[in-house]
Specification:
globular; binds zinc ion; alpha/beta; 259 residues; 8 strands; Aminopeptidase; 6-stranded mixed β-sheet
Length: 259
């Protein structure tokens, strides 16, 4: 297997790249346009679609069509299962990154419409992509593609003075083998980047139907520190963006090709 392209059983999951807020959802937010712009700057995993997906390859990509402020497809659908719901950040956020009110109180139907319009279709696409890979190749690796701010935001409840790595690799006890995690850590370290495992962000997303059921479905999360590619204040890409993105893709291709 060469490392010029991702192996064909890879599915790239890109949940937080979009900044799209549909007009009918915009009115739910309690922020003015400038405040909403700043919140999108802080919370969006800017350009992760461009970083991880290779336009010249046929790798399957499942990316959210709307901002995580509209619906966060990375969360569990029911707040009772989702630890972040306690901070107002279940699938439907009610709080900002600074733990101030984000949304007016929704009617039960309004919440359900958001889930029907954006959450469930996204997960149906992910389920379909994973099923196709398993049917064709007998296996699938979901790479969950993210980025994170260089300084912790208040909602993370982490020490903002604590140094953060260049790259965080997130794992799941069932769906990430030690060899898989080690391959990703090693590929990024060889590029000269500092790498942490499950710190500051643990876990890796797996489609619900396979979760802790199907060992043929593997998962790993790759979180890129935004300082590597972004001027974080206004989310402008750094001049070396394309080169950095290619290095990140190369690490993912190498790591996923060796397993
Ligand atoms: Zn993210």
């Amino acid at each position: 297997m060469t490392s010029d392209v991702y192996p064909p059983w890879i599915v790239l999951h890109v949940p937080h790249d979009s900044t799209t807020v549909p007009a009918d959802v915009r009115s739910q937010f309690l922020l003015d346009d400038a405040e909403l712009g700043r919140e999108l700057d802080r919370m969006t995993d800017h350009l992760t679609l461009a970083i991880f997906s290779d336009p010249s390859s046929e790798t399957v990509v499942v990316s959210s069509t709307v901002s995580r402020l509209v619906v966060d497809v990375e969360r569990f659908p029911n707040d009772i299962d989702e630890p972040m719901a306690a901070r107002g950040m279940g699938a439907i956020y009610t709080a900002t990154s600074h733990l101030t009110p984000l949304r007016r109180r929704l009617l039960k139907d309004e919440r359900e419409w958001l889930m029907q319009d954006y959450y469930h279709p996204h997960h149906a696409r992910l389920e379909e992509a994973v099923t196709m890979a398993v049917d064709r190749y007998g296996r699938c690796l979901v790479i969950d593609c993210h980025s994170f701010p260089s300084v912790a935001l208040p909602y993370e409840m982490a020490d903002p003075s604590k140094p953060r790595p260049d790259i965080c690799i997130g794992t799941d006890d069932f769906h990430t083998s030690e060899a898989l995690a080690a391959a990703f850590v090693s590929a990024f370290r060889l590029e000269g980047w500092s790498v942490s495992l499950d710190d500051p962000f643990p876990g890796a997303l797996v489609p619900a139907s396979r979760y802790r059921e199907d060992g043929r479905v593997e998962a790993v999360m790759v979180e890129v520190n935004r300082r590597l590619y972004l001027q974080e204040g206004d989310a402008t890409p750094l001049p070396a963006f394309s080169e950095t993105a290619e290095r990140i893709r190369r690490c993912c291709r190498i790591a996923s090709s060796t397993i």
